[in-house]
Amino acid sequence: MAFKGNGINPKKFHKDQLKFYLFLIPFAIFMLLPILFIINHALKPLDELYAFPPRFFVDKPILDNFRNLFDLANTSGIPLSRYIFNSLLVTVAVVFLSVFISSLAGYVLSKKHFRGKHTIFEINNAALMFVPIAVTIPRFLTVSYLGIEDTYFAHILPLIAMPVGLFLIKQFIDQIPNSLIEAAVIDGASNFKIYWKIILPLIKPAIATASILAFQLVWNDLETSTLFTTSESMRTLAFFMNTLAADTNVVVGQGMAAAAALIMFIPNLILFIILQSKVMNTMSHSGLK
Amino acid sequence: MYKDNKSPYLFLLPYIAVFSLFIIVPVAMAIILSFTNFNTVEIPEFIGILNYINLLTQDEIFMQYVLPNTVLFAMIVGPGGYVLSFLLAWSLAQLTPLPRMVLALIFYSPSMTQGVAMAVVWKVIFSGNQAGYANSLLMQWGVITEPLIWLQDTRFILLIMIIVALWSSMGVGFLAMLAGVLNVDESLYEAGAIDGIKNRLQELIYITIPSMKPQMLFGAVMAIVGTFSTGAIGVELTGANPTPGYAGQLIVNHIEDYGFIRFEMGYAAALSVVLLLIIYLFSYVSKKLFSES
What we know:
The structure holds 2 protein chains of 2 kinds. Chain A has helices at 18-42, 46-50, 64-75, 80-111, 117-127, 136-146, 152-160, 163-174, 178-186, 191-202, 204-219, 223-227, 237-245, 251-283. By secondary structure, chain A is mostly helical. In chain A, helix 4 (80-111) runs parallel beside helix 7 (152-160) and helix 4 (80-111) packs antiparallel against helix 11. Chain A contains 14 helices and no strands. By secondary structure, chain B is mainly α. Chain B has a single domain, classed as MetI-like (MetI-like fold), CATH 1.10.3720. The longest helix of chain B has 34 residues, at 60-93. The chains are: A mainly alpha, B mainly alpha. At the A-B interface, helix 1, helix 4, helix 5, helix 6 and helix 7 of A face helix 1, helix 3, helix 4, helix 5 and helix 6 of B.
């Protein structure tokens, strides 16, 4: 007898699916434990942090660790609000600029004929495997040669070229029918108007995805703070939080470091939950040929 | 589509400008500097392939620790994490939408932090005294009698790095492959059933994978990038570069050691080039496996 029916994307629960749960749940637990751990650890009062043997779950949750974190930043001379401001400014700028330039480029790479088009896209595809950490030194030299060390530009400019973002946006624009654009051309719309009024509204899922990837990249980034800035007041939240993590031998420090990790993690999580359906939509067009 | 002579370049200009400046130029610069002796103060001095000769013949630490560590780490975390993300994505596709979404979120969430940012968690879990979670648990179970200093013990550093890297490896590639499995044309499965597909494994090998090759390739490239980007995790975990006994030293750390600690930029650049070649080699193999052309 022929194998009946596929199990992909089922609408209803069937006991056949149980074996997949059996495979997936242990992994889910392994993946989730560290995250549950920082949530619990961040909320532990001092005596529970000191408890022996150590306990996983918090008994009496309390926000002391967060308060200590703020106090520590204040006593070190630079208030936490400064790091938060830096991080927000840099993150917003990178996300906005990177999506803007990627979508401009994605539009013409997808819908225009011109010399060098395929070469440019191929180079970008090759750059998908670019790992910035491999060439930190030349990047450092470039930044210092440009004279933008210790400015916000040093945080923003090195991160806004995102090959993955351009790739996903271009693939998404590929499926917009050309007839839409031709109609607009007949109506006399300029290129920028077509980009602004037709392309952008239609590629919102890809924009959301590129934004979330850019956000994750810049929000967690340590490279620009470590290498491209020299004064403490120009550094980002990720950098400050990471210096805390570097000194976790003291038990009090552990609680604060967990609180710091949680503060870094939550925005990522919320953003992804809000945008997840758009991300999955974009990912359907992510094929690399 | 229609012809237009200048505006495409105008639209591309901003992207190409930053792309060249921060991706192309650094790579080119690494290649050029790798043939020089450069200490950041004096002008680089051309020395031919001396750096590469030294790399192969003089740098015992590189040959003895850094290269084997990197290869081992990359072989397990790269292909291992990749196969795991595919299996998880494929299994998730067999579930109904709500549990699928919740589980996908759980698998994806560690990668949001890019691993390195979560070093704190692992430092506490593997802390070296008896109050550390791993020690406490293993002592309760009677597996060990003395607390182990996990993150300074040369036997465990690389293992812990691999666990952490695998934990955070279900990233963009995982999502792409999940979308890929879900988008396979259903009529293909029906046709397959008529043609004598007997079970899920055959379905997987003869229908699912061949029809989502582009996503498989994208996933592979993302897995490679993820693997080499988490390379700094050893220094984060142990708090020292070089890592104790060089046990967790990867090329990335070796570059930093030579570049920013010893200021031998030319030699560090040669190491960068070697790393880029290794990354390229991995990508080349994935392209051979999954490319459609």
